[in-house]
Every structure is written in structure tokens, then in C-alpha cells.
């Protein structure tokens, strides 16, 4: 049986843009395993897991994860990494799509992988979503937030 670290390293390999094997990635999870995108409050289960990978790769087809530190302690593997790629696909948002900019991303990330008997039970990805958005030219809209707060405060 592979070590927990080997399972996690295989998951990263399968999620690279030049490999992208969503079904192989999903096969590393327990039947009820979850992939949790923590900053965006999204949870993927079952067949949603490979769809999450292909969705991200559709926006950043050359996606690469540079592993900086990998620490395996019992059934937990903690990884510090950088998610890198080029914004070549439309980026979906609740208000519409951000058209491709060609900008490079280099997003600091920390991942926690929880394994059970050699399978991934839970994968929590803590990516700096604000950095990613800024790098594709979608910085925060402070003006609208301030105006909305003023409107709410005055009841206008």
C-alpha cells in the first residue's frame, strides 16, 4: 500500500494541466470523500470532484502546482504550495464571466489532506482567492461595498 504522502503526491500529479486525469484523481478518494474549496465555501463530492478539476483547468489549462513543503503526520498530509497557470479560459462568477486576460497566476495555497486506510477522506484547499482574482484583474470593488453599507445604514 502507498504511503499517505505518496497518495497525495499522486493526486497533485493527476491534477496537473498536462496530465489532468479527473477520474484517476477521484479514485484516490473514499466513496464519501470530499474536496473542499475553503475560501469559496464550496464542497465537491463524487462525480463533482473531477468536474471541479476540469473546471479550473478550463480557465487555467496549463495549471501547475509547485509543492514547497510536504509534511505527513499520521493520517494527515499538510502541503504548502503555489498554484500557477495562465488565464486562458473564461472565469465564471455570480455576475457573469471574466474573459481570458492571458495573465499568469501564482497563488499561495495551503492544503490539508485527511486520509483513511490509504484513501483521501477529506481534502481542504485554502487558496488565496483574493490573490488569484487580483492577478487576473478582478480586484475588490470597494466603492460598491462602501455605497451598499451607507445605503443599508441610512435605510435609503
From TrEMBL:
<feature type="domain" description="SnoaL-like">
    <location>
        <begin position="21"/>
        <end position="122"/>
    </location>
</feature>
<protein>
    <submittedName>
        <fullName>Ketosteroid isomerase</fullName>
    </submittedName>
</protein>
<dbReference type="GO" id="GO:0016853">
    <property type="term" value="F:isomerase activity"/>
</dbReference>
<keyword id="KW-0413">Isomerase</keyword>
<dbReference type="InterPro" id="IPR037401">
    <property type="entry name" value="SnoaL-like"/>
</dbReference>
<dbReference type="InterPro" id="IPR032710">
    <property type="entry name" value="NTF2-like_dom_sf"/>
</dbReference>
<dbReference type="Pfam" id="PF12680">
    <property type="entry name" value="SnoaL_2"/>
</dbReference>
Amino acid at each position: 500500500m502507498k504511503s499517505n504522502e505518496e497518495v497525495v503526491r499522486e493526486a497533485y500529479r493527476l491534477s496537473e494541466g498536462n496530465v489532468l486525469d479527473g477520474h484517476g484523481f477521484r479514485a484516490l478518494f473514499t466513496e464519501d470523500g470530499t474536496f473542499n474549496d475553503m475560501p469559496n465555501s464550496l464542497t465537491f463530492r463524487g462525480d463533482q470532484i473531477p468536474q471541479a478539476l476540469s473546471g479550473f483547468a478550463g480557465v487555467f489549462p496549463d495549471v501547475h502546482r509547485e509543492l514547497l513543503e510536504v509534511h505527513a503526520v499520521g493520517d494527515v498530509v499538510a502541503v504548502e504550495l503555489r498554484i500557477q497557470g495562465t488565464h486562458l479560459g473564461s472565469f465564471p462568477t455570480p455576475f457573469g464571466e471574466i474573459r481570458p486576460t492571458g495573465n499568469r497566476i501564482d497563488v499561495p495555497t495551503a492544503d490539508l489532506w485527511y486520509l483513511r486506510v490509504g484513501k483521501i477522506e477529506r481534502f481542504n484547499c485554502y487558496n488565496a482567492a483574493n490573490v488569484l482574482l487580483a492577478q487576473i484583474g478582478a480586484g475588490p470593488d470597494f466603492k460598491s461595498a462602501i455605497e451598499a453599507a451607507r445605503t443599508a445604514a441610512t435605510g435609503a
